Model the fold of this input.
Amino acid sequence: MVPRVVFGKDSFNQLSDILLPKRKHQGAPFIFLVDDVFKESEIATKIPLVCNDQIIFVSTNEEPKTVQVDALVQKIQRKFSILPSGVIGIGGGTLLDLAKAVSVALTNEGSSADYQGWDLVKKPSIYHVGIPTISGTGAEVSRTAVLTGPAKKLGINSDHTTFDQVILDPNLTRGVCKEQWFYTGMDCFIHCIESLNGTYLNAFSQSYGEKALELCKDVFLGKPTPEESRDKLMMASWHGGMSIAYSQVGAAHAMSYGLGYLLGVKHGIGNCLVFQHLDEFYPLGVRLFNQMQEKRGIVMPQGICAGLSDEDFDTMIGVAMAMQPLWENALGKDWRNYIDREKLRSIYEKI
Ligand code: NAD
Ligand code: ZN
Done:
């Protein structure tokens, strides 16, 4: 679990006070990994730089890769001969995962790809702080940093991955455009549906999942003010992340990984593209999703899989079928009785 969290409008202004006692000494900088969408923004000017602290702006054109993490670590090590005091990630799931992975890789030898998997991280990471600027992924609270590596797309799942501190400031999400707000928000909604309808459900995942689902319904089907909407979605993201931390995601995520791996389709939109066709598994969830999409006037792209070769479909199906725990959560231990390659192909062909 994340041991420290503050929530509230303009809580970002507390960053300086929060970091002060964590500075090891004057020579050990804080490294701020910041979404480059904020390069010219007020948020960047408010980052409390002291001594040799450094901001590194990072593009979110692509989702995080192990080579990108390794390059960031080398850049930091080349510039500073000692370990930094900490890493602060400011942005969406992409930046949060990068900050988690860099803080782990700075203290663990080799490539970050060596740590993709479960509990492979040997040494504690350096102090790291997550500051989300868009709500939905739950990356601020999870114990994974999802990375695409040379051989697989898989998270660094460990107790050392989890942030030491999170700052939840809903005002930071103000500039998000409607489409991205919807797709990343739907990531949270889909976390809830997959967790609450999964066979791994337990008292913890249920209580977090129910709260997050209620908040998602308020945000996407109700009439909240913009301010209420930002507050609620940020809380929903946290609770949705906690829900899957105690259980697992399901069919939409398994198939979305296939789209991401082959076509580079991003996590949020990829989940939506798949989820709309999963009424067989999540009938109520898909009905709610359709209502939310209509109410918010979102038109999803079509024909994403048109023109793909048999080999392409096989690649996506292979990636999706390899997500065994996700299918087991979705359909039970005998999931192979319900899911085969033809079934997945028929769903991909609709996208
Ligand atoms: P993202 O971080 O890629 O951001 C999406 C877009 O929104 C980007 O263009 C970004 O620049 C922009 N943006 C972010 N904040 C903004 C703001 N305040 N104003 C204007 N634009 C803003 O997208 P995401 O959906 O948050 O994250 C997706 C990533 O999260 C994927 O890499 C996925 O694998 C990962 N993920 C991780 C977990 C986890 O538990 N670790 C869970 C789900 C998803
Ligand atoms: Zn997700």
Q: What stands out?
A: The longest strand covers residues 30-35. The chain has two domains: 4-173, 178-348. The domain at 4-173 is CATH 3.40.50.1970 (Rossmann fold). The first helix runs from residue 15 to 19.
